[in-house]
Amino acid sequence: MDPVIIVGAGPVGLTLALALARQEVPSVVLDEGPGKDEQRLARSVVLREDTAALVGRLAGLPPDDIGFRWAGWRSMRRKQVMREVAFGGRVSGSGERGGATGSRDTGVSRGDGPRGAVTARGAGASRGAGASRGAESTVEAEEFSAPLHIAQHELTGALREAIVHERLIKVAADSRLDSVEQETSGVTAHTRGSNGTWWRGSYLVGCDGPRSTVRKLQDIRFPGRTAVERHAVAALRAELPWPGEALLHRLPPWRTSGPSVGEVTARPLAEDVWRMDWLLPPGKDLVTPDLLVARIRETLGGWSGGSTPAYELLDTGVHTVHHRLARRWRVGRVFLAGDAAHLLGALGTQGLDEGLRDADNLAWKLALAWHHGPHEALLDSYQTERRAVVAARLRAADQALPVLRGGGGLRAYVPGSARGHDALLTDGHLGRGPLGTPGTYADSPLAPPPAESQAPVATEPGAPVTDVRVTAEDGSFVPLRERLGRGVLLVVLIAPGTGVWERKHWVTAGIMPRLAAAVTALPHPAELLVAESYPGAAAHTVLLVRPDGHLVTALSGVRPADLYEAAEAALGGPAATEPAAEATAGRS
Question: How far, in Å, CA of 316 to CA of 41, rounded?
Fold first, then answer.
């Protein structure tokens, strides 16, 4: 069968190619550029826990080897510290969740622990010159991993390096798409450039960015809003008062040249490099070099007590955020993913997170269709699931923007409004709440019908599973996420005590033989795993997990019929013999 054609060699296109290769599906990546990326430290991305794990798994590297984990997060308003978040540990403070008491000040201590771990510090921890914690301040301790901050060229470089070793991936540099033709049996694409030629594929995925040629050739509308936010950006090397911590500072109190600064963000990279973003007022005013240097000096001086510390300016730019959503993400054998399908990123959210989730969602569905024949309901579910999640994210941002960027009115004087605004922005930057939490596919067409044997767990059906330790079929202990992305369903039995004994002692005992037989009889290959515990799950609960890590269902005990029915639903039902979508596919 012909390979999948992927148009675009950015992070989403390269991730999709690697994800397909892991499932034994060949692909051709049409790269409009020369095959390498310009080094721009002012172009960086922040990945959440799930997308960082996805990239690390595909690149064959621990995520911390690719990017930098934030040690903490703090937000300020004028001279007041509004919120401090510590990742991977507990902190003490009067505002700590759970009612713990102790020292009022918190800070970061690298110590000898893993990157991202934090401990409490006593009074005197640095907040920057003149900063104080007010009555509305909040101190939190996050149990999940810290966000991963990566320069985009380093991310694509790690993915390109992994592709070099993949026999199933071909990257064609200097190949600009100019036409696509569809038939019932496949797709033909033509490129121009030094490697201009015709390419034959089974499917074609447009990962070619906001100005997507694929989207235009398929005549897909891309409505939305232009320039909802603009930021002046600088990457620089300097020592700030809070090493390793990301900072959001609203309404900084120092005097500025030119328009006042409403918001500035500082996000750390490795080796004392920081990406700093200044929110620009609405309009199209030019950001001159003199104005940007003035912003840098005023901001660093304000944080350091008046005098500007030494710094090295490495890169600059202007980041403009648009909000757009393609009307369709699939036309026959042609799909859209990443910025070709959606644009978002206001209020600290990250569009690349959603683009990587697009690739993860689409890869296993294309792989199943490539190996076993067209599954139209399964392929259609890509648009249904992913477009709904991104649409909800855009709605949440559009509803929050007037509140956060409205510029005053009576709303600004409501008690507690500053704290509420800060909580919204923190959610966006840290990937929490409606602005940032990974989406669930609760209303997916792949959801199984309700079953009497369904068991309650902390994860709702359609949501990403928790990354617990499991025992694999070879007896090794691995994180559950390491078993994802291989094109097979995962069946996880919750069996307390199994971690104490070697697998050979319990694999033939109790309900294991019956469950193993039920897994073997499923309509698609599945791997049987065992976990000692799972949040909210009782002993002998059986979880069915999709290849992209979303929960299909949780059953109480071994229920072969219900397990089979849920697996069949997750695969879109029996494969169609006459693909309906292909019958309507035309030429463009």
Answer: 8
